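Re: beginner question about structure tokens

> Can someone show what the tokenized structure looks like for a real chain? I only ever see the sequence side.

Sure, here's an example I had lying around. Input first:
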Amino acid sequence: MDGKGIERREFLKRSIAAAAALPLGAFLIACGKDREAESIDAEDKRLDALKGKIDDSRTEIGAKIQGLEQRFANSPGARAAHGIIGELRQDISLFLALVADNGEAITYGQQIRTRALNKAAEFNDGGSGIPAKERDYLRRAWEERAQAILQRIDGTRADQKRAADSLRVIQAAEDYIHELIPTKSDVSKVTKKLSADLQSAFG
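And the corresponding structure tokens:
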């Protein structure tokens, strides 16, 4: 073992002895598993980028919903309201595609969660050939990583439900207002309720 390897090993021993909450990536580097640590970093960056797209889309939709009631007031009438609702329906449909079960955010999250669980399983017994304390630490660390990823998947599924529920509300309002276009009826009560319902969903 070279000087760098000895230094890493001593650092690792001190960390375990002190029960330090060392991040998994740092722990792997201390073990000399730099490529494994780089793989985790790459996974996290990709997952963060996917979450960023979802967050940006949700924020954009939320801003449109905040201004929805005023937009309806500025463009009164069933025909104008029908057009505004149609535009919003398209925006939320695109958001739903981002958070769908077959979307990249959930499928990739499930993929790396499975990898974390498989890595944890490698340290369930003494077959890994490393000391018991290190083995226990790695098993727990990979299990915690899998749980953290699951929480992110659950968050995406919450967005999925929010979008699906909103689309049902929008579709009902859109269909109803469409029927009122020929009658030139006042649709303000419908649009106010729609605005309130959507603000509750995306608030």
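Each token stands for a local structural state, so reading them left to right follows the chain. The chain has a mean pLDDT of 86.
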